[in-house]
Specification:
It is a single chain. By secondary structure, this protein is α/β, with parallel strands linked by helices. The chain folds into 2 domains: 13-65 and 357-396, Urease, subunit C, domain 1; 67-350, TIM Barrel (Alpha-Beta Barrel), CATH 3.20.20. It is built from 15 helices and 16 strands. The strands form 2 sheets. Strands 1, 2, 3, 4, 5, 14, 15 and 16 form an 8-stranded mixed beta sheet that branches. The longest helix is centred in the first third of the chain and has 17 residues, at 114-130. The structure holds N-(iminomethyl)-L-glutamic acid. Residues 72, 101-102, 105, 208, 236, 239, 284, 310, 312-316 line the site of N-(iminomethyl)-L-glutamic acid.
Length: 402
């Protein structure tokens, strides 16, 4: 029988005899998880037999759906030629400095309608769900003008309406500079930010602090105004160069500093001692130049580590969280158990959700059943899809086996 899960109303669902990986670093070796009205209603061993739909896990791993907290999953155009240039040795930042990279995606996005952009994102959300992602953050940032940043944010909202995946938008207003528009930084701060605030009042504001992108002072001006308007702020910092963005983010109480490949041990301790999350994006190193952030040092210093795909056409063309875990285990010095927390409960906490990222009574039934009986397979297997079934709010992804 093909289960339809347990969406609002209707029959309940029991996933029986699973190894339950809770998401907070603990697990239950053999337990049943009951779902009713989209929520987890009971978790335990030897629960009573019910008339609900039953899925036998046969000891395989049941875990929370992945929360992918850093993506640029809305884009248009192709960067394949640039990828070949990178493979021949041209660095990512040189491509940007020559007017390509982020700027080539900006040109493509500006030429694409809001409806078409929403279609592109819908398709990518389907792929993400198939790989186990049930909540995803999606940034704007390829518009660079008020008109096109708003177009991107509206396209994200449109795609989110039709998808079972929960989508959290972020306004990446400081993503690049425009050589033909020297007033860009002032325009973004004085015009785009207020327009975004008026239409998307709760959205987080993001920037890319880097050589050839926004300076520390530019970011400070944007973030001080955004914070005064009540927005949380996030910063791409220390990806290639250590310019002082991390210190700024900590000083301003930013929600997160993302990337961190070019970070000294002292910086990681400074970040770990703050309330700001550290978001590491190992596929950027895998895809561009083989440099990775030091996840081990950050965790050992007590840091709040989040891992994410960074799904984008330039530095991380993947939407697979299992692949992120596999790269993190090999190159960031973290264990599979630590990586699993960094893609479930930690990012849920960072994005302000108390109802997901864990398997616990009362949480949303955003669940992933693996093909495997040992969660360490997530770090071990490379390039496949370890996910057998996914439920979003208790509703099964109907394309999965069953
Ligand atoms: O986080 N570095 C800045 N932004 C993205 C890349 C975006 C792109 O190259 O299109 C990142 O890696």
């Amino acid at each position: 029988m093909r289960d339809q899960g347990s969406g609002v109303g209707g029959q309940g669902l029991v996933i029986r005899g699973a190894r339950v990986v809770v998401g907070d670093g603990t697990f239950l070796p053999r337990a049943d998880v009951h779902v009713k009205d989209g929520l987890i209603s009971a978790v335990g061993a030897h629960t009573p037999v019910t008339s609900d739909t039953i899925i036998e896990a046969w000891g395989r791993v049941l875990m929370p759906g992945f929360v992918d907290a850093h993506t640029h999953a809305l884009w248009a155009g192709s960067r394949l030629d640039e990828f070949e240039k990178m493979r021949r040795g041209t660095p990512y930042l040189d491509i940007l400095a020559a007017g390509g990279g982020i700027l080539s995606t900006v040109r493509a996005v500006r030429e694409t309608s809001e409806a078409r952009l929403a279609d592109y994102l819908r398709r990518r959300l389907e792929i993400m769900l198939h790989d186990g992602t049930t909540t995803v953050e999606v940034k704007s940032g390829y518009g660079l003008t008020t008109e096109h940043e708003l177009k991107m944010l509206r396209a994200i909202a449109r795609a989110a309406q039709d998808s079972p995946v929960t989508v959290v938008p972020t306004a990446l207003l400081g993503h690049a500079l425009d050589p033909e528009r020297p007033t860009l930084v002032d325009d973004v701060i004085n015009e785009t930010l207020p327009a975004v605030h008026a239409e998307f009042p709760g959205v987080a504001i993001d920037a890319f602090c880097e050589t050839g992108a926004w300076t520390v002072d530019d970011c400070r001006r944007l973030f001080e105004k955004a914070s005064a308007l009540g927005h949380a702020v996030r910063l791409h910092a220390n990806q290639f160069n250590r310019l002082g963005g991390l210190e700024l983010a900590v000083e301003l109480g930013a929600l997160s500093v993302d990337h961190l490949e070019a970070t000294s041990p002292g910086d990681l301790i400074h970040l770990a001692e703050s309330s700001t999350f550290g978001v590491m994006l190992p596929v950027a190193g895998f895809h561009t130049d083989g440099r990775y952030a030091d996840g081990r040092a950050f965790l050992d210093a007590g840091g709040k580590l989040v891992l994410a795909t960074n799904c984008n056409p330039g530095s991380a063309p993947t939407s697979s969280v299992p692949f992120v875990v596999a790269v993190a285990v090999r190159h960031l010095g973290v264990t599979a158990a630590e990586a699993i927390q960094a893609v479930t409960s930690r990012p849920a906490e960072m994005l302000g959700f108390t109802d997901r990222g864990r398997i616990a009574v009362g949480c949303r039934a955003d669940l992933v059943l693996l093909r495997h009986a040992d969660e360490r397979m997530l770090g071990y297997e490379v390039g496949g899809n370890p996910v057998d079934r996914v439920w979003c709010g208790g509703k099964a992804d109907e394309r999965m086996s069953g």
